[in-house]
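G., the chain you wanted modeled:
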Amino acid sequence: MAMFEQIYKKVMVGIDGSAQSERAFNQAVDSTLKNEASLLIVHVVERSVDNTFSEDEDDVTTEVRRLNDTLADYKQVALDKGVNHVETILAYGSPKVLLSREIPEEKHVDLIMVGQTGANAVERFVNGSTTDAILRNASCDVLVISDKKKGINK
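Predicted structure as tokens:
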């Protein structure tokens, strides 16, 4: 009996600076390579840029530059590992909405990969996790990377 193997064309991974998201990134790179897919690396800032950072324009510019540099670093790691097409997105708004529906639908994502838990434990306790929202609302496959394994290779 032949086993059905899912082929993905566009893999999206959400990163938030947590060890879990780094593990998800590494797994996403592996899945992208195995499927000869393209990779979309996304970081979502919880609110609009003018509400998230201080009102000092220089501080906002510095933080946006830092976040874009972080995304560029992830992109370079993926390219160095052999991924042919890598796109990054720095978005502002609700991670639960943007990662579960808006970005995947707009970018035609067929696999979302996320860490089991993210960087913000307080929000997870109060509002539920972003991962839970993605699992409930995504219109494509979702792979949640657990924290059982240690050792993150970036």
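Confidence is low (pLDDT under 50) at residues 123-127.

Shout if anything looks off.
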